[in-house]
Design a protein that fits this description.
183 residues; alpha/beta; Rossmann fold; seven-stranded mixed sheet; two-stranded antiparallel ribbon; 5 helices
Length: 183
């Protein structure tokens, strides 16, 4: 089953599915995310970490992001990502890192204004957040969004300000802002 892009220049276009090993972000959560960051997406460099089919990143491009970097290691998801890149003809606007998130984050040499982190719910998110902060991958004033289980509580994250937390059934969407280079 395909995933439809909700808004922007690719609105209504269907994407290839990433297969059973991934959990697609619900349309209601994608819509909420882009409503929250609608004033920040234009011209943004967007990082889609644990990208799956790439729906979040392609939605960002559709709504005006200038570039998207996808991180995904699953072979079926990578095949879907590559097909979706070709389907939308956005090769010049994307970078695909086909590695485990830890390795891909270690290779990045630029910072992002928007990062969407959506690891499998069973994985702890704190190591990825610490790596993002330690390597200054989030621009000062930039936003980090984390999709995770709504029942999983994490301790406060030093260096980030929690802006909001919204729940969508079994999933939660947390929005953080990076306010200072001092960690």
């Amino acid at each position: 089953m395909g995933i439809k892009i909700l808004g922007g220049k690719f609105k209504g276009r269907s994407l290839k599915s990433a297969g059973p090993a991934t959990r697609p972000t619900q349309a209601i959560m994608r819509g909420a995310f882009f409503n929250i960051c609608q004033h920040y997406i234009e011209g943004a460099h967007f990082l889609d970490c644990f990208a799956g089919s790439g729906a979040m990143g392609f939605e960002a491009l559709s709504r005006g992001a200038s570039r998207v970097t996808f991180i995904e290691q699953d072979k079926v998801a990578l095949q879907a990502l590559r097909q979706n890149i070709a389907l939308l003809h956005v090769e010049a606007q994307v970078e695909l890192l086909p590695y485990k998130a830890e390795r891909a984050l270690a290779q990045l040499e630029e910072s992002f204004s928007l990062i969407y982190l959506d690891p499998p719910y069973a994985l702890p998110v704190l190591p990825y957040i610490e790596q993002i902060l330690r390597r200054y991958l989030l621009k000062e004033g930039g936003f980090l969004f984390i999709e995770k289980s709504s029942i999983k509580e994490e301790p406060p994250i030093q260096g980030l300000k929690l802006i909001s937390r919204r729940t969508f059934g079994a999933a939660a969407l947390e929005q953080y802002q990076f306010l200072s280079q001092k960690i």
